[in-house]
């Protein structure tokens, strides 16, 4: 195998460390979600349909349709404040230091976060921000006390499309910043 010379840009754009998870990134009520353990994992899974035609040998260039896409941002947080626990229970409310689960039925729009983002740093000191819009955790809620260990509160924020916005193209994006977007 021949040796490959890496470009300076290839090296400088290596993402380092775990990143910072931010709830409602860029909004008035922006809040860093932490501390976390195990970093953050973003996944975008498209639904691609092959157009079947007579004589087709397999996947065919130009004969596929992207019908939709599911996105998620998985994290584990160590913070067990009621506000953080509420993120794992759609429709939950907090009153008088007590968290109450939401009711059954249609989940109200207020249960969806405006967004959740993960801000990561590149080797060259720039930042990449992946944002999941209309985010909500839909998985199980677990809370566990273990001797000589900390509770890890798992969250998987799924992005949601807004059915009232016919022009919405995507429920996630990636942007870059030359400066730390979380610096005050």
Description of the structure:
The protein is mostly beta strands and about 180 residues long. It has a single domain, classed as Pnp Oxidase, Chain A (Roll), CATH 2.30.110. It contains 2 helices and 10 strands.
CATH 2nd-level architecture: Roll
Q: Which structural category do the helix and sheet elements fall into?
A: mainly beta
The number of distinct structural domains comes to: 1
What's the shape?
globular
Radius of gyration: 20 Å
Give the termini distance in whole angstroms: 48 Å
The count of β-strands is 10
Low-confidence stretches: none
CATH class: Mainly Beta
Put simply, the count of helices is 2
Helix percent band: under 10%
Strand content: 35-45%
- Could you tell me the CATH topology label: Pnp Oxidase, Chain A
List the helices and strands and how they pair.
Layout: H1 8-12, E1 15-23, E2 31-33, E3 36-50, E4 64-77, H2 82-86, E5 93-95, E6 98-100, E7 113-122, E8 127-137, E9 153-158, E10 172-177
Antiparallel strand pairs: 1-2, 1-7, 3-4, 4-9, 5-6, 7-8, 8-9, 8-10
């Amino acid at each position: 195998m021949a040796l490959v010379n890496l470009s300076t840009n290839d090296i400088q754009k290596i993402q380092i460390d775990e990143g910072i998870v931010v709830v409602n990134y860029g909004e008035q009520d922006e809040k860093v979600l932490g501390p976390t353990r195990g970093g953050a994992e973003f996944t975008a899974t498209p639904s691609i349909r092959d157009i079947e035609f007579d004589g087709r040998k397999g996947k065919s260039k130009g004969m596929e349709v992207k019908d939709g896409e599911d996105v998620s941002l998985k994290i584990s947080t160590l913070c067990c404040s009621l506000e953080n626990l509420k993120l794992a229970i759609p429709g939950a409310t907090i009153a008088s230091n007590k968290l109450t689960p939401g009711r059954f039925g249609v989940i109200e729009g207020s249960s969806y976060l405006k967004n959740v983002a993960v801000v990561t740093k590149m080797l060259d000191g720039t930042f990449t921000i992946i944002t999941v819009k209309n985010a909500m955790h839909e998985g199980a809620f677990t809370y566990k006390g273990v001797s000589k260990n900390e509770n890890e509160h798992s969250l998987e924020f799924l992005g949601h499309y807004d059915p009232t916005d016919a022009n919405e193209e995507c429920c996630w994006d990636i942007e870059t910043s030359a400066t730390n977007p979380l610096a005050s």
